[in-house]
Write a structure and sequence with these properties.
- One of its GO terms (molecular function) is DNA binding.
- The chain is mostly helical.
- The protein folds into two domains: 2-107, DNA polymerase, domain 1, CATH 1.10.150; 132-327, Orthogonal Bundle (hpI Integrase, Chain A).
- The protein has helices at 2-10, 25-36, 42-59, 69-81, 86-107, 132-146, 150-165, 169-173, 214-230, 237-241, 254-267, 276-291, 294-301, 306-309, 324-327; strands at residues 175-176, 189-192, 197-201, 207-211.
- It has a four-stranded mixed β-sheet with strand order 1-2-3-4.
- Strand 2 and strand 3 form a beta hairpin.
- The N and C termini lie far apart (59 Å).
């Protein structure tokens, strides 16, 4: 770790080393494990890599296997003194804890040095969400603009599905038209038209099933009729299975979804910037307002811990067996919904 020591001499402690300096082999192998075995997103992996590089810089010449609780607490205090926000500190500590939970048993360490160390408490506020009227206005505008244009119909279907099922952006673009299994490819997430639901491979490799509302089913059926004309002739097995395609016939990218939703929000006269995650927040808030079934929303969002879901409300929820069809403002799910 000599390189990390040189870095810390030239910059404040905790400044991550450059990519050329790399990470210890154990850290690189953990990131590879998260990428291949756990299927973490590139965005999450980049954040973890940055947090591990920060640990390397703070540790200087001390190797990972020599770190103890006192080191981790000291490093966290130094980062706090440098002005890192509680949220950044919590994310950084989570990355360190995850790494050591994986590495400590292999290295024969007596303990996970990051276990039991707490970051400053976060002030958790309610995420930004649209009102029901705003959400319906945006989606109605998308419906009116769909016409017979394949891209417009794709966008309408994507945004209806985001709001209908509360998907993360990565989950939306990872969906396939149906379950596919060949010698070259096997689906992880897909649309089940017959059951009007999506099976989603979410964070941490956890799969969940989420219902799809009637407005989204109609938009999807219209898009699926247009989709074959957009598929590239030389499509890879992954692209050929993708539910949503870009203009070049490949699986749609996160950036395209973001840009198209921003354009829609502007065209609909929304007075705020609209990000795909806002649609997820709106889904959660609106279902909770109607049903007050925290556990059901937790399952649909794919939250591992119900405390994550609780940011959407300050009410003391009791168990209520309210169905999705009654709760969601655009549900209207019927078994005779057109299926394209």
């Amino acid at each position: 770790m000599g390189a990390a020591s040189a870095t810390s001499a030239a910059a404040p402690a905790g400044t991550p080393p450059t990519a050329s300096q790399g990470l210890p082999d154990s850290m690189a192998r953990w990131l590879s494990h998260l990428e291949t075995a756990r299927r973490y997103s590139p965005h999450t992996l980049a954040g973890y890599r940055h947090d591990l590089a920060r640990l390397v810089s703070l540790a200087g010449d001390t190797p990972p296997e020599a770190l103890r609780h006192a080191h981790i607490r000291q490093y966290l205090a130094r980062l706090h003194a440098q002005g890192l926000s509680p949220r950044s500190l919590a994310r950084t500590l989570a990355a360190w804890r995850g790494y050591f939970a994986w590495w400590a048993p292999q290295a024969g360490l007596p303990e996970n040095p990051a276990a039991g160390v707490r970051a400053p408490k976060l002030a958790r506020g309610l995420p930004k969400a649209l009102s029901v009227e705003q959400a319906q206005g945006v989606l109605d505008h998308a419906s009116r603009g769909a016409g017979h244009d394949a891209i417009a119909r794709r966008d309408h279907a994507m945004f209806e599905l985001l709001y209908s099922s509360g998907l993360r952006l990565s989950e939306l673009i990872g969906l396939d038209t149906a379950y596919v299994r060949t010698g070259e490819y096997e689906s992880r997430s897909w649309l089940n038209l017959a059951e009007q639901e999506v099976l989603v491979w979410g964070k941490g490799g956890k799969r969940r099933t989420v219902p799809v509302g009637g407005a989204a089913m109609t938009a999807l059926s219209h898009w699926l009729r247009e989709r074959p004309a957009l598929l590239a002739p030389d499509a890879t097995p992954d692209d050929a299975a993708a539910l949503f395609l870009g203009a070049r016939g490949k699986r749609v990218t996160p950036r395209v979804v973001q840009l198209q939703l921003e354009k829609l929000a502007i065209a609909a006269g929304l007075p705020t910037r609209l990000h795909p995650h806002v649609m997820r927040h709106s889904f959660a808030s609106h279902v909770l307002q109607s049903a007050q079934d925290l556990r059901a929303v937790q399952e649909m969002l794919g939250h591992a811990n119900i405390s994550t879901t609780q940011v959407y409300t300050r009410l003391d929820f009791q168990h209520l067996a309210r169905a999705y069809d009654q709760a969601h403002p655009r549900a209207g799910r019927k078994k005779d919904t057109p299926r394209g």
